[in-house]
Amino acid sequence: MDDNNRDSGVLLVEGTGSVRTVTMNRPDWMNAVNEELHSELADVWAGLRDDDEVGAVVLTGAGRGFSAGGDMDFLNRVSNDPDFRYRTMAEARRIVTELIAFPKPVIAAVNGPAVGLGCSLAVLSDVVFMSERAFMADPHVTLGLVAADGGALAWPLAMSMLRAKEYLLTGDRIDAATAERLGMANHVVPAEEVLPSAHALARRLADQPKQALRDTKRALNMHVTAAVGNVIDFAFAAEAETFALPTFREQLDSYTTERNIGNSRAAASS
Question: Mind giving me the DSSP string for 76-92?
């Protein structure tokens, strides 16, 4: 692996030439975000920003999923450990702000479910290619949390406010065709074409005149920065508060129990 690539185990940065592929790499957990992956997602953008060889980035997930949101053990620790919760909220804020400020095009290759933070990562990217079998969802409210790390920040910029309210307040899934219609995805393609399509566009964008490309993205993202800046402080403070409430712990315990029962039934029938 050369100096332009990295492998933390849970986050891979690979590629040569002007395009890098950033892959969330916890395929057995549908790339659910644990403590290590959360930290890597906050740190990865600075290195790619400062690498003059890199002209564009493709963001995707290993295996069948893009990202299933927060890992249950990780969320449980955020809920029960106040110091860890404070650090995690600061890190979550940095994931959002680093991605918005990143000067090079980010193409999301949504190869499977994009849930919670995973959905936010996709919607905060510059162009989204989505598998026809994938879906998006933000179940923060269903779990008893404020949808701070992207949903409440970015969804109203991609769709109407009425639609954003409906999907964030219910946590309902958004299938690929609906996501494209609402403005959360640019292109819906067969599963096998998601990554090649994203790479093709990334190479095309990386070949554009560098300063014109970056400053145009910067100008466009000034709209995003202004909108996010109006709500980000309240949103993360409110999410931190709901992490500490008994309601969240009850919902998380219930979800974990239901998932374990489902896994046991699946194992018994196999």
Answer: HHHHH-HHHHHHHHHHH
Is the Cβ–Cβ distance between 134 and 66 less than 8 Å?
yes
The CA-atom distances, in angstroms, between 226 and each of 97, 103, 208, 230, 238 are 11, 16, 26, 7, 20
4 in a structural domain: no
Q: Which domain holds residue 247?
A: 11-268
Q: What is the pTM of this model?
A: 0.93
Nearest to 149 by CA among 244, 27, 240, 55: 240
Q: How far apart are CA 238 and CA 49, in angstroms?
A: 31
Domain containing residue 125: CATH number: 3.90.226.10
Distance CA(88)–CA(37), nearest Å, equals: 12
pLDDT value of residue 149? 82
Decide: 175 and 167 in contact? Cβ < 8 Å.
no
Q: Name the domain count of the chain.
A: 1
Give, in degrees to the nearest 5, the angle at Cα 154 between 147 and 189: 105
Which is it for strands 11-14 and 6-7: parallel, antiparallel or unpaired?
Answer: antiparallel
pLDDT for position 265: 44
Q: Determine the pLDDT at residue 5.
A: 66
Which helix (DSSP H) or strand (DSSP E) does residue 170 occupy? helix 161-170
Q: DSSP character for 5?
A: -
